[in-house]
């Protein structure tokens, strides 16, 4: 069979497989129960004076509870939307810190992390993370939002929205570490695998009881309020696995092992991205109450202080040790502070948040230098910001616990940190190795040199303005 | 007819343009270029790694000049573009075989 015909037969088979899969899905999961709202036929309405039943303490209490419940919905959904916008933050940070010839590829990976993540989490992930769990290791119910009962409490929907954007955040952490040399198809496979499987299973260990599940780690008293480990370390260790299996970008390290600078093409975009992330983090941390309570005030204060302290910590570190106050290091510092406070934002006092953030800013600079020293190429510092500082933040949540720390608390935090590393790094390393062996995760050298945008997507991010009208069309 | 090309520091474009106009030049072309001569490049750092920027941004100003104006034009470049430090640039004078105005198809000095 000629190559041309074979390619088209493959395309038809792929489409048929997709159609078959969609047809096999239970229809009820895809189509919401029809809500029939029949307009009443017009009649002459005679006003009838009715006696309102007198307000009782009981009915007042119920009304107040309803208002509180609606406020919970409102806050959680707003917070979810704030976290959603962090996707734009990641896209801009990554695009700004890499080269223009790969900007389209960065944007596509970020769009797909959110899109594939949303569907994978709906299909499989949410059930694994929050379904009823008899073992404490993973959930087994609630796939495709099947827990939703018509006329039932739509809280499930709001909670799912909030959790989905968290899953998408974990996924998109990896796109920066694997930037400028990863095959797009391989990346999509990774994105589905993480949000369907790796992220939710660890998540079930720490957060399952937030809905219908229960996890062995939270049973031990593991503190990770908004996800320094559950989201950021899981993403960071997956990023480490990906960067290691990929190898460094061409030309990144010289024959003597010394790194060569590859400056980003637009640090202004990167800065804007950092601000969007900082902005969204107020939803990430304060929204994790999933309730409209006064707790959100302390959480917001801790979040901001840690970010600010982290930016300063990193700036001072780069000024003292690297001669100049470096912009991208300072940005990494702010994000490291945010990651660092994410675990303890609810159980530490503001003074502690400053210390946690400041130390995270120092740690992240040295971590970036360390990974360069061992020749693991991370274009945006994702492994350092999310993996390393996620671990720091989780430990800090135990150390700085406002009600006092203890050996047992510290040990539990360390167990959680270790379990996340073993699970996330372990599964993702195996995954990337397998995909690399079968399909190949790295682009060919010629493509890497020319830039991914033309080869993977056929687009240019900053193409020149074109003028397609002919001279005759202009003159007419 | 001569072509006079001057490579200058970018921030001096306005001064050079004015000086050239006073010397009788009516049109010019400006191109953004990078280069180095005896002015060494700069060392910058990115995330802890130093790297040399050897090619520095300059501007090249090109004018076509009638033979009797050449000395004045070169002098205009020198007076407006010199700072006395390394990196001031250079002026190249070469002979033009022909100049043609596209609109009217005139040739020679009348086309300048």
Description of the molecule:
The complex is a heterodimer of chains A (476) and B (112). By secondary structure, chain A is mainly alpha-helical. Chain A is 67% helix and 0% strand. Chain A has one domain (67-457): Orthogonal Bundle (Ammonium transporter fold). Chain A contains 17 helices and no strands. In chain A, helix 11 (327-342) crosses helix 12 (350-373). With 112 residues, chain B is α+β, with helices and mostly antiparallel strands. In chain B, helix 1 runs antiparallel to helix 2 (70-81). Chain B starts with a strand and ends in a 17-residue tail after the last strand. The interface between A and B is medium-sized, with 19 and 8 residues.
Name some characteristics of this structure.
heterodimer, A: 476 residues, mainly alpha, Ammonium transporter fold, 67% helix, B: 112 residues, alpha+beta, Alpha-Beta Plaits, four-stranded antiparallel β-sheet, 20% helix, 36% strand, elongated
Shape category of chain A: globular
Total strand count of chain A, please?
A: 0
- How large is the radius of gyration of chain A? 25 Å
Task: Report the sheet with the most strands of chain A, covering strand number, pairing sense and barrel closure.
Answer: none
Instruction: Domain count of chain A, please report it.
Output: 1
Précis, in short:
With 476 residues, chain A is an all-alpha fold. Chain A has 17 helices and no strands. The model of chain A has no long low-confidence stretch (mean pLDDT 92).
What is this structure's SSE topology?
The complex is a heterodimer of chains A (476) and B (112).
Chain A: H1 3-24, H2 27-30, H3 57-96, H4 103-130, H5 155-177, H6 184-207, H7 216-219, H8 228-246, H9 267-286, H10 295-321, H11 327-342, H12 350-373, H13 382-399, H14 407-438, H15 445-450, H16 452-457, H17 471-475
Chain B: E1 2-8, H1 13-22, E2 29-35, E3 42-46, E4 49-53, E5 56-65, H2 70-81, E6 90-95
Antiparallel strand pairs in B: 1-5, 1-6, 2-5, 3-4
